[in-house]
Amino acid sequence: MAQTNKLAAGSEFPTITLNALDGSSRTLGEPKEGATWQLVVIYRGRHCPMCTRYLNQLEGFKERLGEIGIDIVAASGDSSKQLEDHLTKLDVSFPLVYGLGEAQMKALGLYISVPRSEQETDHHFAEPGMFVINEQGTVQVVDISNNPFVRPDIETLVNGLTWIRNPDNHYSIRGTAPY
């Protein structure tokens, strides 16, 4: 049976710094704009219409996430040119970074796909992943998929994160039992 490594809930999020189109860089998992947690969204790339739709839907929840101290960054393995092209279909105000390499995809425990054709894209790409990183730089919530059809419902995700962030609930990181 083939197995891959995954980034365990409760572990330290790896240091991955990627570039944005404006020339700035972002270190994934390091919140900005007064937030203490960060939602890191890994998407397949410009070639994926479901990713475009999901990112555009996520924009509608940015304010609610900000109210509970969570900012958003989205990353893909696309090139700067591919991200630039993708922006024509995106209506988001959260940071988008590009150039996620295969070694970084593996460090995050993501599924990696080979393009079905040259028309799809010109590089291996990560399948969807989502990581919520807390103020200690620890993976609080993780979700990965091996295809674009399985992703968390954003309303359910935001409601759950609101509940987790409420200190009265004392909700610890789940899925940490060793095996």
UniProtKB/TrEMBL annotation:
GO terms for molecular function: oxidoreductase activity. Transmembrane segments: none annotated. Residues 7-166 form the Thioredoxin domain. Signal peptide: none annotated. This is Peroxiredoxin. It comes from Enterovibrio nigricans DSM 22720. The lineage of its organism: Bacteria, Pseudomonadati, Pseudomonadota, Gammaproteobacteria, Vibrionales.
